Structures are given as structure tokens and as C-alpha cells.
Amino acid sequence: MKPIKVGVLGLGTVGGGTVNILKRNAAEIARRAGREIVITRASARDLHKPRICDTQDIQVTNDPFEIINDPDIDIIVETIGGAGIVKDMILTAIANGKHIVTANKSLIATHGNEIFAKASEKGVIVAFEAAVAGGIPIIKAIREGLSGNQIQWVAGIINGTGNFILTEMRDKGRDFGDVLAEAQFLGYAEADPSFDVEGIDAAHKLTILASIAFGIPLQFEKVFTEGITQITRTDVEYAEQLGYRIKHLGIARKTPEGIELRVHPTLIPERRLIANVNGVMNAVLVKGDAVGATLYYGAGAGAEPTGSSVVADVIDVVRALTSDPENRVPHLAFQADALADIPVLPSECIKTSYYLRLNAEDKPGVLADVTKILADHNISIEAMIQKEPSKGETAVPIIMLTQITLEQEMNAAIAGIEALPAVSGKVNRIRMETLG
Ligand code: HSE
To answer: Structure pTM?
Structure first.
């Protein structure tokens, strides 16, 4: 059989890792795929930049459309990232009848519905394992391995940069900016690192996970997103004293009222395995009604871990080339005409428990005022710590853990507490999950 010809768009971290794996493991890959897979063409914005991969025998251009329009190319691997012009590239490649393998989470999360519809019309595959959690085969696990289950919830550390920052802050007391700069140097961070620290990257990935878990269209704009920039060492330390770790989680949960889609810093019990996922590593917990809770762990970013997912998708595409398009695994796990219109809940309707930290005057009645406001909103307190005032201070930090409540009630209670004359500054709120 003739070798399959691949064109790689982008020779940065992920593109370079993909080239290295496909070259180094060519023989093993051919044994798995049933035929040889060769990269014949690649594109790079700057043709003279030093690369992490060997481009010998690959024709490199700075015009991706040359490759997209080359009738000799069977599969396009897109590792440029971002939407805009990249969306045009993908749609043109689909129109040209090419199969796509992409690592582009923002493109899939924001334009996936349109891209998959076009791909289905043309009978081509758009594979995107590398878009979520780098080297962890989480798309395959949910879409195929758990396809007998009703998925109840998914919760994951799905941004390596953010997890690296939180870990280094906790373990080494390092500064936020200093750790972020290291993540950028190591090639983990997004081109715009605010995507990492503000939770946008995680929201892209959560959008994709929720769609394949619950069989709903991609709805990035409905994800509630809160970043990690407000997390202080003080909160990290109080959380530890209470037996919790703070992780930046993406959570998708199916409730009787609708689907919660949220990315935010989260206190989780330190005894949970996922609480001990550190550095740039990612982990995703998936709870199915039949299987129970399952945990997937591995490198969430980096050249070869992400390249590993890209190459696995390329092999899947090659194996499916001769199959009838109707009998392939659907892009979003469920048949396109069976996607459900389940509402995504607004943030006020999220139900969770909370960690609250506030500064209050150390005088009689203040605590009673605070707890009365919580009680008025039907919020039950689970645990509380009041610290000694620091030398020369009259205000004391009060830390409370609450039971599960409606976000709307918590918003109102926090507004009431902040309005108390004896309370200074903002109430710092971090959501909590037991993940039991
Ligand atoms: N910036 C991303 C992260 C890269 O840190 O997880 C992988 O998607």
C-alpha cells in the first residue's frame, strides 16, 4: 500500500514534537496503522528559526495554503493554534477532502460545531485528542471507553501552566510572575498567558469535555470562568490547615436542572488523588453511572506528550480511511442528530460549598452578625477558624467552610457581610468540591 502523506501546519512545540515522534517511531507506527505514514510537507512562519525537530526530507514552506491545496496530502496536522485564519485553513482543507488532526482547543471549542458539520458533509474526520489534557487520551476514554455510561460529572486539572504556578507557590513560596515566566520558557504557556491564568484555556478544554460527556453542542460562551490570579499564599496555607489543597479545576456536572460548566480555583480534600497532581501534570476525573469514578493522569502540555496524542489521532485516521463515514466514531461522541439541547445553567444556579475568608474587627457580636447573614440565606457553616490579630492590628482573619448552597444565595450573603461596618475589604470566596 502507498504511504499516507501528512502535511504539518506549524513547527513549534507541538508540531516539532509530532515530527520527532512520527520519524523516530515510524516502523512501530506503520505496524500499528497497517501502512507507512510520512510527513512530506510542513509550514512554519519563520523558515530560519531553530527547531526542535529534524526537517530533513520534509518540504518546508511559509505558506500553509500550499500544503492545504496540495492534492498529494492526505492528512493535515494543525498545530498553529488560535482561531481566525486557522479556521479558514481548516475549512479549506475540509473542502479539499482532507482529514484533519488538530491540537487546537480554542478553534474546536469556539468553531467546532460548524467545523464538524462541514467535515461530516465531506465525509472527512476531524480528530482533536491533543486539544485536551496534552498526552492523556481523555477524548478516547470518554468517547469510546466509557460509551456505555451516563456520565454524571467530569472534573479536571486541565491547564498545566496554572497547576505549575499553584504548585510552586505552595511548595516553594515562589512568586506568581516568576513561575509563569518559567512556564513560558518551557513552552507550556499559551501565546497569551492570560489564557492560562484566567482559565480561558481550561474553559476551551472543558467545553470539549462536556460536549463529548453529555452529548451537547459545544458552548464555550456559557462556561463560568474564574482565574487563579486572586489566589494568595494565605489562602493556600489556610486551606492546608483545614485539610484541603487549592487546584484550578474545570467542572462539568449534569444536574436535574441542567449542566454546570465552570472553571475556578477549588478547594479539594488533600486525601483525593487529584489533589496531589502537581507541576505541569494534568488529571481528569470522570464519573459514570456504571463504572463509578475513573481518573486519568499524565503530562498536559509539552512537545512529545502532546505530539503523542496527535500521532495517535493520525493513526486512528489512517485505520478509518476505508470505513464508511456513517460508521465512524462521531466527532462529539454522540450522533450529530442526537445531540441534546440540555440547558447550561447560569452561574447563579451553581450549587457548591465554599471557603470564605474575611477580615473583621475583634469585638463582641461581629461573628454573630456574620453567621446571622449566612443563616438568613440558608447557608450552613461546616467549619470555622478565627485567628489571633497580628501585632498592632485590631482586625482578625475569619475563615469559614460552608455546606452546599446556591451561588445566588452566597452572592447575596457576601454582599451583606461586606456591608457590615466591622468587616473590612472584600470577602475572599473559593468554591469547594469533595469529588467523592
Ligand atoms: N497552555 C496549556 C497548558 C498548554 O498549560 O496546559 C496545553 O494545552
So the answer is: 0.96
| CATH 3.30.360.10 residue window(s) in the chain | 138-299
| CATH 3.40.50.720 domain locations along the chain | 4-135+303-338
Q: Is 128 in the pocket of ligand 1 (CB under 6 A)?
A: no
**What pLDDT score does 17 carry?**
98
Ligand 1: does its nearest atom lie under 6 Å from the Cβ of 301? yes
What per-residue confidence (pLDDT) applies to 186? 85
Task: Categorize the per-residue pLDDT at 403 as very low, low, confident or very high, splitting at 50, 70 and 90.
Answer: very high
Catalytic residue among 98, 105, 140, 205: 205
Q: Which atom of ligand 1 is nearest the CA belonging to 164?
A: 5
Which is the CATH superfamily of the domain at 351-432? ACT domain (3.30.70.260)
CATH 3.30.70.260 in the chain: give the residue spans: 351-432
Ligand 1 mutation pick, 188, 247, 263, max ligand atoms within 8 A of CB: 188
Q: How far apart are the CA of 261 and the centre of ligand 1, in A?
A: 19
Across the range 78-87, mean pLDDT stands at: 95
- What is the position in ligand 1's atom list of the atom closest to the CA of 301? 7
- Please tell me the class of the 138-299 domain: alpha beta
Q: Let me know if 205 is a catalytic residue.
A: yes
- 154 pLDDT above the threshold of 90: yes
Q: What is the CATH number of domain 4-135+303-338?
A: 3.40.50.720
| 3-class secondary structure per residue, the chain | CCCEEEEEECCCHHHHHHHHHHHHCHHHHHHHHCCCEEEEEEECCCCCCCCCCCCCCCEEECCHHHHHCCCCCCEEEECCCCCCHHHHHHHHHHHCCCEEEECCHHHHHHHHHHHHHHHHHHCCCEECHHHCCCCCCHHHHHHHHCCCCCEEEEEEECCHHHHHHHHHHHHHCCCHHHHHHHHHHCCCCCCCCHHHHCCHHHHHHHHHHHHHHHCCCCCHHHCEECCCCCCCHHHHHHHHHCCEEEEEEEEEEEECCEEEEEEEEEEEECCCHHHHCCCCEEEEEEEECCCEEEEEEEECCCHHHHHHHHHHHHHHHHHHCCCCHHHCCCCCCCCHHHCCCCCECCHHHCEEEEEEEEEEECCCCHHHHHHHHHHHCCCCEEEEEECCCCCCCCEEEEEEEECCEEHHHHHHHHHHHHCCCCEEEEEEEEEECCCC
Determine the average pLDDT of the residues in 119-127: 98
pLDDT bucket at 1, cuts 50 / 70 / 90:
confident
